[in-house]
Design brief:
Oligomer: single chain
Helix content: over 70%
Strand content: under 5%
Largest sheet: none
Structural class: mainly alpha
Order of helices and strands: HHHHHHH
Number of helices: 7
Distance between the termini: 47 Å
Length: 172
């Protein structure tokens, strides 16, 4: 992979990947690291790699695997040292065009409530929800990225929606 190809991937999918990294890690600093590590891994594997299908799905899969590795290492360190690490929750304000101030504030507040509810889901359910709704990947692409069956993705999405529906029913 040449530097030009990498730059094309960054231009085409960088924003979506960074948004996904922020949602998964719930921390800007960790999201920055994950974002950079994802493109570094892509560059490292470039000679062995042929991306035939959806490059966005492939990048999300790489980021997800790097995140899992990080969480696994962190878990081992916490068991050894006994130190807990807090997660900084950050949510981006998504600008919405064509609304007046009151509608804009209400939609932002509702968005924050939903983001908080999604953030509280276990990774098992949170990641498929983020990939499906935020990154608009198909169930087959999510299954490939997470290395699970498509029926497992369907089950996790269904259960996550059920949990969210129960949590948000009275709030929205």
């Amino acid at each position: 992979m040449k530097q030009e190809e990498l730059e094309n991937y960054i231009d085409a999918y960088g924003r979506d990947l960074y948004s996904f990294c922020c949602s998964v890690t719930r921390s800007r600093q960790e999201a920055d690291d994950l974002y950079q590590d994802t493109f570094l891994k892509l560059y490292e594997l470039s000679d062995k790699l042929v991306i035939r299908t959806n490059p966005k799905s492939f990048l999300m899969g790489v980021a997800l695997n790097l995140y899992r590795n990080y969480k696994r290492k962190l878990s081992v360190r916490q068991r050894i040292v006994g130190v807990s690490v807090s997660i900084d929750e950050t949510a981006e304000n998504i600008p919405v065009e064509g609304q007046d101030t009151e509608e804009l504030m209400i939609s932002r507040e509702e968005g924050q409530i939903v983001r908080r509810a999604v953030a509280k889901l276990p990774d098992k359910y949170r990641i498929p929800i983020l990939l499906y709704y935020m990154e608009e990947l198909s169930q087959a692409e999510i299954a490939a990225a997470m290395r699970i069956s498509e029926s497992a993705v369907k089950t996790r999405l269904h259960r996550a929606k059920k949990i969210l529906r129960e949590k948000l029913e009275g709030l929205l």
